[in-house]
Amino acid sequence: MLMRTDPFREIDRLAEQFFGTAARPAMMHLDAYRDGDHFYAAFDLPGVDPDSIDCTVERNVLTVRAERRRPAGDGVELVAAERPMGTFTRQLFLGDTLDTDKLEAGYENGVLTLRIPVAERAKPRRVTIQANGNARREINA
After folding, report:
1. SS3 label, residue 34
2. Do the beta carbons of residue 38 and residue 117 sit within 8 Å?
3. Which residues on neighbouring strands pair with residue 14, listed in sequence order?
4. CA 28 to chain centre
5. How far apart are CA 82 and CA 41, in angstroms?
6. Pfam families recorded for this chain (predicted)?
């Protein structure tokens, strides 16, 4: 029997594990943006049961975990399996300027959207300056 060796097999396996494949992506896709006094993070989670989504914040680390399962049962016959299944996890490191105590989450049309207000201490504010004793003027800080 002839065995053929592939010197790049281990490199390919590690690359698939780190970067993912078309059938099993390494992470969930996300858009993040700031609009006024709020920061938004939108995660693509199509076909995920909302009950399987877990969102936690510990210190300044936001972790989103979701699971997509295949239909199971005695009469289920798998004909094609191209959609990624399993558990997906994504972590974001949030700045101290966000108020994670007031984080809001919603799931609609396969998109998990997190809305995090900017902390009051991080918002621009006016500072009163005294000059020549009693004269006062305000500037933006």
Report:
1. strand
2. yes
3. none
4. 7
5. 27
6. HSP20 (PF00011)
Using DSSP, state whether 14 is helix, strand or coil.
Answer: helix
Q: pTM for this structure?
A: 0.68
Q: Is 114 exposed, middle or buried (0-12, 13-18, 19+ CB in 10 A)?
A: buried
Which residues, listed in sequence order, are joined to residue 117 by a DSSP beta bridge? 38
**Rounded to the nearest 10 degrees, how much is the dihedral formed by the CA atoms of 78, 79, 81, 83?**
-100
Give phi and psi for 28, each to the nearest 5.
Answer: -85, 145
Q: Are strands 61-68 and 38-44 parallel, antiparallel or unpaired?
A: unpaired
Write down the pLDDT at residue 42. Answer: 97
Per-10-residue mean pLDDT of the chain, 141 residues long, equals: 59 64 65 93 93 92 90 82 81 89 94 92 77 63 58
